[in-house]
Amino acid sequence: MATIAVLGNGRVGGSLAEALIRAGHEVTVAGPSPASAADAARKAQIVINATPGAGSLERLAALREQMQGKILIDVSNATVDGPDGLPADLLYPGSSLAEHLQEALPDTHVVKTLNTMLYPAMTAPATLTQPPTAFLSGQDTQAKQIVRGLLADLGWHQEWITDLGGIQTARAEAAILFVPHVIRSSGLAPFAISIAR
Questions:
Q1: Boundaries of every domain in the chain
Q2: Are 101 and 121 in contact (CB under 8 A)?
Q3: Is the pLDDT of residue 58 over 90?
């Protein structure tokens, strides 16, 4: 059992928190205030960033002291939204939110995952019609192994998880730019990117 802080109490953070509690973990969901986030991060072994990606770097950088030695699971995408509120461009072209977080939090083990799907698939991957893929990006091998275990608790089979390598591979978050087109074409039905071999 892990002690987990979820930063962000919207649909993504809420669904992850509920699923992890069902799996037996001790989970705290931090509200929007900096004091709430700092308190939750201080007490946790693992922190999940489920805050809106455009403001994540500023929010998390302020928690540098509380985040020392912790694992930070980043599930957000830093995008510029279009007029319809859907992602239209990347906030960090040629880079990624996870890379910026790792640079701002050098004593934290940042792992990027679960960001290439609509949020219902994060906690119910087996409900999709074919096996989805969850990607892992991060510098620390042990941290990625721990995150693999949490993904298993969320219903992810190990063969559905692909370790892309170091934190620079988090640039695969550019895949988020598929999402608005899929939504406009097919609606809000849950989906995930899948690597077919």
A1: 3-186
A2: no
A3: yes
